[in-house]
Specification:
Helices cover about 45% and strands about 10% of the residues. By secondary structure, it is α/β, with parallel strands linked by helices. The strands form three sheets. A five-stranded mixed β-sheet has the order 2-1-3-5-4, sandwiched between helices. A five-stranded parallel β-sheet has the order 12-11-10-13-14, sandwiched between helices. A four-stranded parallel β-sheet has the order 7-6-8-9, sandwiched between helices. α7 (about 115-125) packs across α12, α12 runs parallel beside α16 (about 325-330) and α17 (about 345-360) packs antiparallel against α18. The two termini are about 40 Å apart.
Length: about 575
């Protein structure tokens, strides 16, 4: 190694990422980074340096992605083509079958990175280490979002550069990280998640060992060009874990979850598929008890042992019907699957009938339970009716269930949009809503949701942040679905009337919106926003200028693309 190289390595701050310590960005920002320096600082030499260790350092230039959308910001078709060329055809075929969609976040960036769903599932499980492999900007965003939503543990990260990616060194670094994390005294499983660039480059997580020192190693790919929503990404990891747990259970006895016998008391259980408000599983368990059934684990689970209990059930309730990979594992285990959920009067009646058929409970016992529960549910719905025209949209997968509860409560619901796909397990809800005059839009885009607000001019719009903003700009009261609607009990007697208070309060706010709109009338919007005392000085909107410069930018992008191909 040359004296110059030794001097450069010695100049690296002890707290910089190259020396193995914690990253301190003030110091790291002044560090000169290139492939040779990083390799030498870590004690490794790439093949080119091995041939001539005293050669001049080789710098790998990392250019920003051009405006025409290449690199990790490329479109769905480009990323899929790269993944196909890298030998990921089988993976892409599976993702297309499980999560069909013509548009993904790369072409329709209207929600958070889908990998957040898988990351959240891993971070919420006890004794599970979760590692991300992807571009640094993506990992930063996912880590920030995870801690914003209350993650209480670290997110692992295996960094890479152009050279480690194309030479296969990234996979070796991931493998090394897995070996370091696989401590049976601390974890039951290590989850490694490939983001877009490693997936498109063919980083083969399938070649990781399946088990180390009794610790399960689970590698999954969750690319934005293959998994449309973060809700479906939860299914990617949940399904992968169920597959491993099913294999272990089929191979021999497995450990029982803590307190399972006390909860079940010898009764068959119903596994609940899909994240839901914490009180809902308790309410479902109370409804099942007269049928000598019990509410089983909620999948995604909170610890590994619960996966065994989830598989050891009498039937599976697909509360969220888009968990395709998970349902495939339950089907392989020979379990019956029931769609929809006990929401409202009709939904509870239909669901109890379906559970009775799936578990062999006599219809007379089911009818007796319905006679006991349904009058109280109807009374609660009638006591706090919802009167008003509503549009509803979201991306979590429970939108159709909330829609049923709103209609049962008397609301004039015109539209429900969900970013999730239509599946056999959502068909009963779709048919019921259609029979009540509700337009149901699967794989709804932001444009679909905004168009529904404009078309129906509702008294209340429930949806995502941009939908809420769009409605309020039109003096229409609006509620954010995730925080104000889905974070409430929906099932059975507890769910009846649970939405009425917040919905009716929002409907009553229409007068306040009208007053504010009247007060701020004339201040302008977009190009004319502001208070203009001199009417002659009000800027004129010139859309032709924007159109001209947009065409210029498109021509420049095409020219750069043509030059790159020469």
């Amino acid at each position: 190694m040359s004296q110059d190289m030794r001097a450069r390595i010695a100049a690296v701050s002890p707290s910089s990422p190259l020396s193995g310590g914690e990253v301190v960005y003030d110091a790291a920002g002044h560090t000169q980074l290139d492939g040779t320096l990083a390799a030498a600082a870590s004690g490794r030499l790439f093949s080119s340096e091995a041939r001539d260790a005293d050669a001049a350092p080789r710098v790998i230039p990392i250019a920003a992605a051009p405006a025409d959308g290449l690199g990790c910001h490329a479109g769905r078709a480009q990323m899929q083509a790269a993944a196909e060329a890298a030998g990921q055809g089988e993976l892409l075929d599976r993702l297309r079958a499980d999560y069909p969609n013509e548009r993904g976040p790369h072409d329709q960036p209207q929600s958070m990175c889908p990998a957040f769903g898988s990351l959240r599932v891993g971070l919420r499980m006890r004794r599970t280490a979760t590692v991300l492999s992807g571009s640094a900007c993506c990992v930063y965003g996912l880590t920030f979002t995870s801690h914003f939503y209350g993650a209480r543990r670290s997110v692992g990260y295996v960094p890479f550069n152009s050279e480690t990616l194309v030479t296969g060194k990234l996979f070796e670094d991931i493998r090394e990280a897995v070996f370091k994390l696989a401590d049976p005294a601390k974890v039951d499983a290590v989850v490694v998640i490939n983001l877009c660039v490693p997936t498109a480059s063919g980083v083969p997580l399938r070649l990781l060992p399946k088990e180390l020192n009794g610790v399960r190693i689970i590698g999954i790919d969750v690319p934005g060009f293959g998994v449309p929503t973060h809700a479906e990404a939860k299914d990617v990891l949940a399904g992968a874990m169920l597959k491993v747990a099913r294999g272990e259970a089929e191979a021999g006895p497995v450990a029982a979850p803590r307190g399972r016998d006390a909860n079940l008391r010898g009764r068959p259980s119903i596994t609940l598929l899909g994240e839901m408000f914490p009180a809902d599983p308790i309410g479902i368990g109370m409804m099942l008890e007269p049928l000598d059934l019990a509410a089983g684990p909620v999948v995604p689970t909170r610890e590994w042992r619960e996966l065994y209990a989830a598989l050891d059930c009498a039937a599976v309730a697909a509360i969220h019907p888009f968990y395709t990979a998970s349902l495939r594992e339950f089907d392989a285990a020979g379990r019956s699957i029931v769609g929809s959920a006990p929401v409202g009067h009709d939904g509870t009646a239909d669901w109890l009938d379906a559970i009775g058929r799936a578990t062999g409970v006599a219809q007379a016992r089911v009818d007796a339970l319905k006679n006991r529960l349904l009058p109280g549910i109807r009374g609660a719905l009638d006591k706090t009716p919802i009167k008003g025209r509503i549009t509803l949209s979201g991306y979590e997968g429970s939108e159709l269930l909330v829609a049923r509860l709103l209609v049962d409560s008397g609301a004039d619901l015109r539209y429900v949009g969900t970013a999730c796909p239509r599946t056999p397990w959502s068909e009963a809800d779709r048919q019921w809503l259609a029979a009540h005059g509700v337009r149901v839009q699967f794989r709804a885009s932001l444009e679909d949701d905004l168009a529904a607000v404009d078309e129906f001019a509702p008294d209340l719009a429930i949806g995502t942040t941009p939908v809420v903003q769009h409605a309020k700009q039109r003096a229409i009261p609006a509620l954010y679905f995730t925080n104000l609607i889905s974070a409430r009990p929906l099932m059975g007697p507890a769910g009846a009337g649970s939405l009425a208070l917040v919905i009716n309060a929002a409907l009553a706010g229409k007068a306040r919106f009208d007053a504010m709109r009247s007060f701020f009338a004339g201040v302008g919007e977009r190009a004319t926003a502001g208070v203009w005392h001199d009417r002659g000085a009000v800027p004129a909107d010139r859309p032709e200028f924007r159109s001209f410069y947009r065409r210029q930018l498109e021509k420049q992008a095409k020219k750069r693309k043509a030059e790159e191909m020469v």
